[in-house]
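Troubleshooting: if your tokenizer reports a length mismatch, compare your output against this known-good record of 563 residues.
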Amino acid sequence: MAGQSRKWMILVATIWIQAFTGTNFDFSAYSSNLKSVLGVSQVQLNYLAVASDLGKAFGWSSGLALLCLPLPVVLFIAAFMGIVGYGLQWLVLQNLLSLPYFMVFFLCLIAGCSICWFNTVCFVLCIRNFSVNRALALSLTVSYNGVSPALYTLLARAVPLDSNALYLLLNALVPLVVSVIVLLPILCQPDLQHPVSQDEARRDSLVFLLLYVLALLAGIYLLVLNTLAPGLTVARLLFVGALLMLSFPLFIPGVIYAREWANRTIYSSLRLQGSGFNLVDVEDLELHKELVGKENGGAGMKKGSKDSGGGFCENMLEGDKLSVLGEEHSAKMLVRRLDFWLYYLAYFCGGTVGLVYSNNLGQIAQSLGYAADTEALVTLYSACSFFGRLLSAAPDFLREYFFRMDRKVFSARSGWLAIALAPMPVAFFLLATTTDEKAFQIGTGLVGLSSGFIFAAAVSITSELFGPNSFGVNHNILITNIPLGSLVYGSLAALIYDANGSSSGRHNTVLVEGAIVCMGRQCYKETFLWWGCICVVGVASSLALFFRTRPIYNRFEYNRTIT
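Known-good structure output:
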């Protein structure tokens, strides 16, 4: 029982880490100040956002660090990088320190890398402590990363300092404080996890269902309260309420275990019925591959296949379709897969566009005359991103129901990816055709919802399609599209913005603290049209991936239901 309580404490610790380390999402809150203090163009400002995303390309360094260092040490190295990356930028905005542009670029890169290190710590904690419901644990904790801007907005309102530069100071200090708070349960985690019984797996599934409901309530709480403009005292009370909402998950497992104890000791005839929420785990995948091998009479292993330890087929080195879920792919095999490149393109033309939109949200709102509402818009985007991340668990909760109802399109997670991408082009075309504030909010919400779903779902899709044991390397290869997309899409937006800003004869421009600011719908209209067309490519790629992978998902579900 003690071991069980520890794993849930670790889950809550992971939730806290994720909730307070999504510091890249509040870039829009202080980007205009950064542009003015540094005296840079929109293109140069975009490069700073690219630098933060470029830090993700060095995420592999955290994996190497974990091979040599204890996990708590890696956690505090991440916090230290955040202090340096964000803290020195805060000093620059306060005119307490003067740094050249390339040094600020380097600080943004370090800050972005710190986020990757925090994410790696969270992934490892979930994988070590939740072998059966691993995907649910990952999806839940990753979801809380989307509420970071809302939490930081509440905290900024609770601090008696009226400056957008305050976000940088909070980004530097809060993750360190949270790292100290969660250190005890991380140090107490068991070295080896005991085998999980069927009853325990079912009970854990119910716990996760309740945790998702609680997360939904927390997201609603933060979304509603951030639309208010409370005074200092009320803001502090609201922030304390948010901290309590983040602590509530600790009580859910206790309630479940109390119910189980009552069933065993008082109502022994009662049994917790199966929920059907258990996910695709390593054991299921191995059984699935064994059944597929029997169905094919051993034909699945080509003459060029290696032994079971290597476990791959000759056809995987060709461009044909995947034959089974969970087959391990080395990096070399991965990049020779057509399915991977369809997946890469769908992410590149979907979730990455949404991330670039959030980075530019401050300038977009300013150009449309909504500068005073930038905090509310950032909160709206982050809250919808949070809800999207929570929705990414829908395939895991509903897959049996849809499979039994013969709705096989919903059994494949790649199909859900296509559904999640569909609103993205709609949102950008809406943003390109109107300046109405309500429509702008709807478009922002749709972009946040879709991109949040993609960010969280990608964790499970990578594991299912290309192997759970190879996830660390393969997912880092996948997210190389983030800095690439940040550079391409951000530069496109910045070039169009600067071109419109310099054409004062055609469009309105104003001078704000020495920086030229483009005002009007035309500043981003063409950008939205380009982004919308790019998202259409992402939808097409995701549909192609779905049609190619649907057979193996259906086969997996069939094999799982007959065993």
